[in-house]
DNA sequence: TACATTTAGATGTATATACATTAATTACAT
DNA sequence: ATGTAATTAATGTATATACATCTAAATGTA
């Protein structure tokens, strides 16, 4: 195991709370770097995957850009631009909302669903593999992260 | 407390390991959003702060760009560009390394140190405030994150 | 020495976040 | 009904990551 102290060549932390902030930032970066490798062969980014997952969860029912935004993991994501990228790739379609012409109805295409079919399997595999803690530790870690934001 | 399920409007997760991945991504985003507000008045980004901290830790001894890179929280950071931004702001200086003309000696300026003086206090305050868990829970959380990468 | 290899740093491009602003449309209040 | 406010999505700009490529300089070897 590579300690953070070693990874960033810092002798020690001011206190455990400061270390926790660094630990979160470092662990996130560690995760995301590996996620990128996973997604790369599929031609989409983790954020674009997030959008596709949201669309698939709609089970055919269209959703607006702002609703996608609200459901994203990172609330600062720019759903409008991510949607545009995915549209160019043919993974979703955009239609004018009939009841409100400001809104746009977004839904996943057959191609989008096909891409997810394989990719989701790989993501699940990756997640299972990445998290090699005991069930108990996973639950505890989830709990503590929830508490941290509490 | 806002559960992730509510925050991203997802009914449930496939399993706790999948939830943990999402939890990490979501908690990170939650943290970074608040960090950005903290740094904004100081005119530097969290990443630029990371560079300045590394330089301050050198206690006057210059350091190369690649060494900065190695010590950064996100190993994919582009230290060369971050250094350039900080140089423009007068917070660090770049000097040609006498023993190897490929390398560049970076060191923090008096202005950089002055900026850190106040900012570090605010960062410590923020961290203490952000992490409102018990000492025991902080230690446990640090441990579990370490294990996760183990 | 001469040439190939490696290393350090800079730079180009694509993607994404952060935040402000704009245009079009809808809702609301008078 | 009309003017104002609010909402939706798009867009502009700055910062940063991700990854490839380039140049200059150092290193290593025949």
UniProtKB/TrEMBL annotation, chains A, B:
Q: Name one Pfam family in it.
A: MarR_2
Name this polypeptide is given: MarR family transcriptional regulator
Q: Which Gene3D superfamilies match?
A: Winged helix-like DNA-binding domain superfamily/Winged helix DNA-binding domain (1.10.10.10)
User: Which PROSITE patterns does UniProt cross-reference here?
Assistant: HTH_MARR_2
- Give start and end of each HTH marR-type domain: 17-150
Using the record, list the residue span of the signal peptide; answer none if the entry has no such feature.
none
